[in-house]
Amino acid sequence: MSRSFRSLLVAGAAGFIGSNFVRLLRRTRPEVEVVVLDKLTYAGNLANLAEFERTPGYRFVHGDICDVALVDQLAADVDAIVNFAAETHVDRSLMDPYAFIETDVRGTAVLCEAARKHRHQVMLLISTDEVYGEVREGRSKETDPFRPRSPYSASKAASEHIAMAYAESFGLPLLVTRSSNNYGPHQYPEKLIPVLITNAIDDRPLPLYNDGSAVRDYLFVEDGCRAIDEILFDAPIGAVYNVGTGAETTGLQVAEAVLDIMGKPRSLIEFVADRPGHDYRYALDISRVTELGWEPQVSFAEGLERTVRWYVEHEGWWRPLKSGEYWDYYRRNYRPLVS
Ligand code: NAD
Ligand code: TYD
Asked: How far is the CA of 106 from the centre of ligand 1 (A)?
């Protein structure tokens, strides 16, 4: 089975994963028209999409997924919506949860309503492994209950509930991905890996919460985008997919690997006060997505090297982001470890 689309509305594609996805789509399926809708929050960056400006079959619209009239107008002219748009950083959700509820929950409802009204082929919601909450042992399956523990993950869980309610009540042709932690080029320097790399470039301390023992499944963004593509074009309507590598890496292992690649001393690592409600482990059962024919291709060692190289070679991309509001956030977020 394979779908074809004339035109897609890709919301939130000025951010990290969305811009990498548009790059994949434009390269591999140039016949599909792409309309990007993005609010350009602090995390949205037109530089991520600069190469597509004024190319045929591509259009950028500056706007909010919560804007009912705008979304309705754009949805009238496409076959499907892929939604990346969200507030995405756990630490910021602890400081300003309302922004997360507005965009992640209400915004998703606005997109679902438009997709229903205009009888779209697919509504693909990009969700997260964080909806399962901390997993002390074993691996989360798609059928496991939600136990979100941060305002971010609670808002993403709520967005899934809204979309699933639309699927049940109105037959919305829904697909959902629950991905582990993506990393790679174009990631805003607030998530762990770009914080570590950009700090190391400047010989600043690499902050690790508590003892750096929290485990994540780090997925190279190109692999993650290939999974999204596979699901969008080939998965049966109604399906939900975990997407990850199955590997487990601690924050301390990531920091040490970054420093080793860059030839910098381990003494740059600084343990700082823990994140409130920190989830110490996520782990996914990825058998369902592998049955669809997808598997990760880039090892963590290779992906991290490529990512370090990208940040070293693209200072002009990230350095302007680390100014003004960024440092206000940074100072609020990172506090000394009191043992
Ligand atoms: P990001 O923070 O880099 O980008 C988010 C984008 O959404 C930005 O361009 C921003 O301007 C836009 N946006 C925010 N609010 C908006 C609104 N109201 N209207 C329109 N646009 C808006 O995020 P990302 O890391 O690329 O994540 C993309 C999606 O993938 C999110 O839904 C996130 O929850 C999900 N996800 C991310 C990861 C990860 O590791 N980064 C893992 C699993 C799932
Ligand atoms: P993060 O990149 O924020 O993603 P997640 O949404 O999965 O929490 O954090 C990844 C892990 O790294 C998580 O266990 C928190 C930890 N972390 C640090 O130790 N230091 C940091 O500066 C950041 C941002 C995260």
From this structure: 15
CATH code that applies to domain 185-216+247-278+299-333:
3.90.25.10
80 token code pair? 């499907």
For the entire predicted model, the pTM comes to 0.99
Residue nearest to atom 20 of ligand 2 (CA): 208
- The residues that are catalytic are 129-130, 152
| CA distances for 230 relative to 81, 109, 149, 278, angstroms | 15, 24, 30, 32
Identify the three-state secondary structure at position 9: strand
Atom 4 (ligand 2): residue with closest C-alpha? 191
Kindly state the helix (H) or strand (E) to which residue 53 belongs, with its residue range.
Answer: none
CATH class entry, domain 7-182+220-243:
alpha beta
- pLDDT score, position 1: 65
Question: What is the predicted pLDDT for the residue at 338?
Answer: 82
Check for a shared fold between 7-182+220-243 and 185-216+247-278+299-333: no
List pocket residues of ligand 2, CB cut-off 6 Å: 90, 181, 191-192, 195, 207-209, 214, 216, 251, 275
Ranges of each domain in the chain = 7-182+220-243, 185-216+247-278+299-333
Distances (CA, A) of 249 to 157, 194, 212, 259, 300: 24, 16, 10, 15, 9
Give the pLDDT confidence of 149-206 residue by residue, as tens digits: 999 999 999 999 999 999 999 999 999 999 999 999 999 999 999 999 999 999 999 9
| Separation CA 266–CA 220 (nearest Å) | 24
CB 269 within 8 A of CB 209: no
Distance from residue 151's CA to the centre of ligand 2 (Å): 15
| Ligand 1 center from residue 12 Cα (angstroms) | 6
How far is the C-alpha of 213 from the C-alpha of 191, rounded, in Å? 16
